[in-house]
Structure formats: structure tokens, C-alpha cells
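Researcher: We're teaching a course module on how sequence relates to structure. For the next exercise, students receive a sequence and then see the predicted structure as C-alpha cells, so they can try to spot secondary structure elements on their own. Here is the exercise chain.
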Amino acid sequence: MLTISASEEWQEAHPDARIGLLEISGVENHSPSAALEERKRMIETHLRERYQGYTRQDFHSLPVISAYGRYYKRFDKTYHVLLQLESLVLKGKNLPTVSPLVDANFMAELETQVLTAGHDVEKLFGPVIMDVSHATDEMTRMSGSPKKLQAGDMIMRDVHGVTCSIIYGQDDRSPITPGTSHVLYVCYAPAGVPVGSVRGQLERILEHVRLFCPAGVVVRQEVLTA
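Model: And here is the predicted structure for the students to work with:
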């Protein structure tokens, strides 16, 4: 099991923030799942019915999205899960198919609106620390491009550097791949996101993973609070 902790700086800089952790071993990610695809169609229908008639302002007023909106505004950014939810509900786009472990998370994100990253545990090197970015920090994004980070963002580090940032997403070293057999999901919840929403996100992801990998072993399921 990875050693994962939160720095004092994170706790001081982001009071009332939360980090949800879900670590599962013995998973398979290389084959499509008919059960997962069926669940996607159900979620799409449910979300379109639930938010029928919503405008962008209506979405902004949802409690969880509103909390993320305040956080992202500090960095002059727009919460990308809001854009994805709008795309599904207002533009009729369907949930994508990337891989079962990735899709399990993305499906849950649109249901709960709680931002979550997924990492291959074998590509993380502990100790892993939930921390705060500095102006000197940089990372290589999933696209392969280097990125200097803005100071004050909630991030995750391992011994090799920054692995994820709320504002700029994941690095190119530790994301889930078709060969991932041990996964860590990390929910980033700034102040204003209820702890129940974070726990609900972890439960939803696990429920989706169980559809295609019922024998997966839950190594860790917890919430860190500043």
C-alpha cells in the first residue's frame, strides 16, 4: 500500500478541503465491458431527465459545481466537469469510451460533479503527498507538454514530482493505461464540497468498477480533511 498523507501547508492553505482516496488492486482494464456500456446509457438518460431545461446559470447554481466554480475562478479557469455535463445534457453528446477504469470514474464524475483523477499505482513512488503548488513547480501534462503551475493550487506529489493538479490535470507518467491492474482514484474537493459528495463519488466509482471486475480488492477507501 502506498503511503499517502496531506502536508500541513495543504491543510493551512485549503481549510475545509477534502481528498477522497479509493485504491483497488487486482483489476483488469484491457477489455470492453458490456455491463459498463449499459450503465453509461442509463446514466445519460438519467442526467438528461434530471437536468432537462437547465441553463448554464442553473448548472452554476448547483452546490457542488458552485464550490468548484469559486475555486477555479481564483485561477481564471472554468470547471471542466461543468462543461462536460453541459455537453451531455444540452448538446446530446454521449459518454466516451476510453477504458473501463477511466470510464468508471468519468461516469461517476458527471453524476456527482466531484473532480477525480485516476492513477496507475505501479507508476507512483511513495511517499505520496497532497500538497500546495508553488510558482517554481512544473509538470509534464498528459499531452506531453511541460507546464509551469500557478501557486496555491491543490496538487499531488510523489518522489519524482507533481503527479496531478486540480487546474492542469494529471501528469504523463502515472495515468491509467490498458495494462493497469492496481488503481488509485483521488477526489479533489475544495471548500464547499460536502464530505457526503466525496464519499458518494468513491462509492459510485467502486460500484462501476464492480460491473467489470467484481473480484477487485479495495485496498483503501477514505477521506482526508483539512
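Model: If you want an answer key for the exercise: Residues 11 and 141 are 25 Å apart (CA to CA). Residues 4-31+98-225 form a domain with the Phenylalanyl-tRNA Synthetase; Chain B, domain 3 fold (CATH 3.50.40.10).
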